[in-house]
Design a protein that fits this description.
Layout: H1 2-35, H2 38-42, E1 46-55, E2 60-69, E3 72-79, E4 82-88, E5 93-96, E6 105-107, H3 109-123, E7 139-149, E8 152-160, E9 166-172, E10 178-185, E11 188-200, E12 203-213, E13 216-228
Antiparallel strand pairs: 1-2, 1-13, 2-3, 3-4, 4-5, 5-6, 7-8, 8-9, 9-10, 10-11, 11-12, 12-13
Amino acid sequence: MRTLATAILLIMAFSFVSVQADEVSDILEKCYKATGGKEKINSIESVKIKGKMDIPAQGLSVDLYYVSKKPKMYMENEVMGMKMSFGYDGNEVWAINPMTGTDPQVLTGPEADMTKSQLEGFLNLAALPFDNYANQGIKAEYKGIQEIDSSRSCHVIKFIETDGSFADVYFDSISFLMYKTEQNVGGQNIETLVLDRLKNKGIIYPKIIEIKTNGVVSQKLSFSEIDTNFDVDDKIFSMPK
């Protein structure tokens, strides 16, 4: 009897895992479809973005201009009359920062890695976080539907990294578009919310992204223009001489 009971428990456990995987796969598939389709998203080769970033705690508003042509990227930030430029030409990461001098500088080490990662975030604006998560050793758990407020409920998926860190990703239960992510970073609760969207060439992009740290708005990104798959002069990605 004990052997039979153990077998039944194992079957139930494997069945639960299978249902979990099916739920996760179904939600991600519906999210991609609602966003414009995985094929369209993966076909993006060049991106142009105009917008601004507000940092309430510092009273700053930063104008943003971004252009990319896989894998090359370029971004300008202008704040209080000062313009900063960052680029990746496919080989080197570089920057021009008036606060450290007027000459362009090649970035190396962690500084280069962080800058390149930030630039890639704009390139992949339409992509889902944790895409192909299983191939990266990331685990996913479906946590059910959670009521956000009186007008919104969300499917919640918990993605667990190989180091044990995790993020909860919320998908609107009606539209299946991603609403927010929530994770703990260095002991702080970080929420990233998509508050509005715009559409370009059949793909839906975030228009307003709000980032909260421990419940307080720390950054707000607002995009006025997003365009994709257009001709780009490669000169913009090269470090000025």
